[in-house]
TrEMBL record:
Record family assignment: Belongs to the CobB/CobQ family. CobQ subfamily.
Pathway: Cofactor biosynthesis; adenosylcobalamin biosynthesis
Gene that encodes it: cobQ
Domain CobQ/CobB/MinD/ParA nucleotide binding: 6-234
Name of the protein: Cobyric acid synthase
Molecular function via GO: ABC-type vitamin B12 transporter activity; catalytic activity
Provenance organism: Micromonospora olivasterospora
Active site residues according to the UniProt entry: 340 (nucleophile), 436
Domain of life the protein comes from: Bacteria
Function: Catalyzes amidations at positions B, D, E, and G on adenosylcobyrinic A,C-diamide. NH(2) groups are provided by glutamine, and one molecule of ATP is hydrogenolyzed for each amidation.
Amino acid sequence: MSGGLLVAGTTSDAGKSVLTAGICRWLHRRGVKVAPFKAQNMSNNSAVVVGADGRGGEIGRAQAMQAAACGVAPDLRFNPVLLKPGSDRSSQVVLLGQAVDTIAAGNYHALRPRLAEAAFAALAELREAYDVVVCEGAGSPAEINLRAGDYVNMGLARHADLPTIVVGDIDRGGVFASMFGTVALLDPADQALVAGFVINKFRGDLGLLRPGLDMLRQVTGRPTYGVLPWHLDLWLDAEDSLAYGRVLGRPAAPRGTDWLDVAVVRLPRISNATDVEALATEPGVRVRLTVEPAELAAADLVVLPGSKSTVADLAWLRETGLADAVLAHAAAGRPLLGICGGFQMLGRAIHDPVESREGSVPGLNLLPIEVTFDPRKTVRQSAGVAVADPGVPVRGYEIHHGYVSSADPALAPLLTYADGAGEGAVLGAVCGTHWHGAFESDAFRRRFLTEVARLAGRSGFRVAPDTAFAAARERSLDLLGDMVEEHLDTDALWRLIESGPPGKLPFVPPGAPPTATG
């Protein structure tokens, strides 16, 4: 078979990524050869994939997570177009893994035909290679101002004749209006592809919800395929839900007597914030995204994460008083970690003729390094060991224009590559690295947190010897598969995947109100 399905959403963060992953895991467990697909993703959370030519390329982290749900290696075709916003008005365009341009919102339309052609070709190849391709939309299919050039929502569904389900987040409220409005705003040809709905993040008595589901079917002519419950343990590679003050994961109680509090600065152009999710899998480690200087003062470890616009986000740190809080934290001898762009901010100076074109700007001067931006982008998977303990292996990946162009020769690296070259820097309680994903290496994460606890004076903190990040991710993917099997009408979903769109369904226009049932 060569089946397909499009998972669209009423909004961003409605649950498209996790529902797509759940359907992929359900199909994988049935023995179906399945692949994920997102024609275009707008995100600064990316993963490095080695292409057929041996070069490293980028796709959205959500698609890498979905590939894991399918039991397959990530593929550049799973996310052929990735837009990485550098500001409110411009984005770097990554096409089939490689950065090809930087565009402003106003001239995106000129490049769009080329991007659509590449996306359609990638989907066609995947449908030849896999039994089923589960596609994820972007934003909402009812963004009518963008419909003419759309190739990721109903434009994709029309091109590939994909049955479409629409997922909505009931926890936000207004889910019935959102679902009705989504269908109502589509033209009849698009409506004909929308088969039904899935409600996400429901809490409460399902019996109280059923009359609404019946009325939704009356006014749209479409069923609801199921209601997914709200679940604390779903934390997979969040993209749209990196909210201020959000605690990542569901921290388990500490193995010792002390907790470790980790404050991650939520930069305006934050990238790959998922780096710290591995820390959040450890018992007794509470990881919070914040923009409050007071929360940095109270933290045991402060993290400056990656940034798509390092110089602009460094200026924002200074404007908000967060830079002063970071400096005070470091002056007190408390642990501070910079990752990629955050690492670059810790140096004496940043020379940037490429990304911001601001030239040379002073850094936070916490590490004796200088960083220069090069037009050539480093995109690769990396492997090596921890300098402090050469028996501890570390794997990660790199995505950056900046590189260390000058450093105090006495400065110790944090890591070494397999060839022995140093990477990153350590000076007292301050350290940094360009490697994303390093904390997914279990032994390195444990050693790092043990040192953090020592420097922070948390003598009662103990790392768990048995926490495995990869196993925790598999459990979450299995949980998604379980939820799909338990709460959705999988027989109906299978018929959609196998048989295609249901054909033209009735739609009751506004002015014909439903009647309550049940």
